[in-house]
Write a structure and sequence with these properties.
- It is built from 10 helices and 8 strands.
- It has about 250 residues and is α/β, with parallel strands linked by helices.
Length: about 250
């Protein structure tokens, strides 16, 4: 990343000029941001970072954790619902884009799905984090992704043993969608998810069972081809921030 790009990030994220960690270490914001990005961009250890940058392990750990917390506190509301961007007009535009891509219905504006991130085996509460389907210890998240590839809602983490329907309920997403998701003329709009979710006036899913009709199979096939965008978004996050896929250092309860 170039210096001018770092400056753009500082301005866009509205970060302070100085960062003070919990042990009173103070760092200039651009250096602190580079610490965090260096930590997340590649699956390395703090000791590797210390060798690269010439800082102590403690300094890197505390400063990167502090700047991460600052960014999260400043912008976490966007993970739930961005009222300025997700207006009725924008939601209708998304629905029209999906419709032009071949969707059999013109009121779907986004796609929802859950994802798991593997973690190191915890020393305590191992069963709560164990996912029997994937046979690994993990944490779960779910997200809504729009046709432009942006994650418009993100909830988590929860214990890996939980299913997608649990995340849907716990995220308060049904209430948010009921309140905010409609076209400018008040036409209800929906998100689309896999059969793990239940159908409602804000959520559509695939047809299930062995006796579905040809039209229902066509619906499933067409919507599945469009729904894959949510999987691409999850993969993009791991590609950008390789540390998230470094299972050995994903330590729960730390």
């Amino acid at each position: 990343m170039k210096p001018d790009e770092v400056e753009e990030w500082v301005q866009a994220l509205q970060l302070p000029e100085k960062v003070r960690a919990d042990n009173q270490i103070i760092e200039e914001i651009r250096t602190a941001l580079c610490m965090l990005l260096g930590r997340l961009a590649y699956p390395n250890r703090l000791s590797d970072m210390a060798m690269k940058f010439g800082w102590s392990v403690e300094r890197i750990s505390r400063i990167s954790t502090t700047i991460q917390s600052i960014i999260h506190e400043r912008w976490k509301h966007l993970l739930e619902w961005d009222h300025q961007r997700l207006t009725p007009a924008r939601l209708l535009q998304y629905a029209q884009t999906i419709d032009r891509k071949g969707a059999p219905i013109g009121t779907v504006w986004g796609f929802v799905d859950g994802t798991i991130r593997a973690i190191a085996r915890p020393t305590r509460r191992q069963r709560t984090c164990y996912n029997g389907w994937k046979t690994k210890h993990c944490l779960k998240y779910h997200a809504i992704v729009t046709p432009d590839g942006l994650i418009s809602h993100l909830f988590g983490p929860v214990d890996g043993r939980r299913n997608d329907a649990f995340l849907w309920r716990e995220s308060n997403l049904p209430r948010i969608l009921q309140q905010h998701v409609h076209a400018p003329d008040s036409t209800p709009l929906q998100v689309y998810g896999d059969p793990a979710y239940s159908i409602s006036n804000v959520l559509l899913t695939a047809y299930q069972g062995a006796q579905i009709t040809q039209d229902q199979r066509l619906w499933n096939r067409t919507m599945s081809r469009l729904w894959i965008v949510v999987k691409w978004a999850f993969k993009e996050m791991v590609n950008l921030f390789g540390f998230l896929d470094y299972v050995t250092n994903q330590k729960h309860l730390l």
